[in-house]
Structure to design on (168 residues):
C-alpha cells in the first residue's frame, strides 16, 4: 500500500497503516554527511601538513613578510625544496637561522644588528628613563665639599650644567 504526500513523495505504508522507514534514503544522507566531513578533515590535514613543511624549512607562516611566500608557493611540499625556493626569492638567507634573518644594518655604521639586539637596547633605554635617577655623578657632593674657593665651586657647578647667580 502506498500513499502520496503534499511534497509529491511516495511513502510506503506497512500492514498497520504506519509509514515504513526508508532506510535507503537515511543511509544516503548519512553517506553524504560522512563524505562532506571527510573532505573537510582532509583539507584541514593538508593545511597542517603544509604549515609543518614550511616551518621545517625555516619559514614562519605567522610572519607577515614570509606569509606572502607561503601563499604564493606552489612547488613540492618538501622542506628542502621550500627552503631553496625561499632563498632564491630572498625571503630567507642561506645558512641563517630564523632569528638571524631579521638583521637590520644601521645607516651610519657598517655593522648589522639583529632585531632582537635592537629591541633589547631599546628596552634598556626605556627602563633607564623610567627609573628617573638624576644624571649627576654620585660623587658630586664630595667634589663640592672639596672646593676651596668660590671660583672653584662656580666652575664645578658650570661643568655640571648648573648656573648660579648669587648677588652679594
Amino acid at each position: 500500500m502506498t500513499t502520496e504526500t503534499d511534497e509529491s513523495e511516495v511513502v510506503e505504508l506497512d500492514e498497520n497503516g504506519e509509514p515504513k522507514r526508508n532506510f535507503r534514503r537515511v543511509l544516503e544522507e548519512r553517506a553524504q554527511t560522512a563524505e562532506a566531513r571527510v573532505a573537510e578533515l582532509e583539507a584541514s590535514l593538508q593545511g597542517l601538513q603544509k604549515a609543518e613543511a614550511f616551518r621545517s624549512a625555516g619559514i614562519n607562516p605567522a610572519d607577515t613578510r614570509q606569509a606572502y611566500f607561503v601563499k604564493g608557493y606552489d612547488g613540492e611540499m618538501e622542506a628542502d625544496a621550500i627552503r631553496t625556493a625561499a632563498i632564491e626569492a630572498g625571503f630567507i638567507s642561506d645558512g641563517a637561522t630564523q632569528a638571524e634573518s631579521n638583521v637590520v644594518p644601521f645607516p651610519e655604521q657598517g655593522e648589522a644588528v639583529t632585531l632582537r639586539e635592537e629591541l633589547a637596547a631599546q628596552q634598556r633605554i626605556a627602563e633607564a628613563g623610567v627609573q628617573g635617577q638624576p644624571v649627576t655623578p654620585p660623587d658630586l657632593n664630595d667634589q663640592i665639599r672639596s672646593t676651596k674657593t668660590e671660583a672653584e665651586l662656580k666652575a664645578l657647578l658650570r661643568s655640571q650644567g648648573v648656573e648660579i647667580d648669587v648677588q652679594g
Summary: The first strand starts at residue 2 and ends at 4. The beta strands are 2-4, 10-12, 103-105, 112-114. The chain has two domains: 2-101, 102-133. Residues 96-101 have pLDDT under 50 and may be disordered.
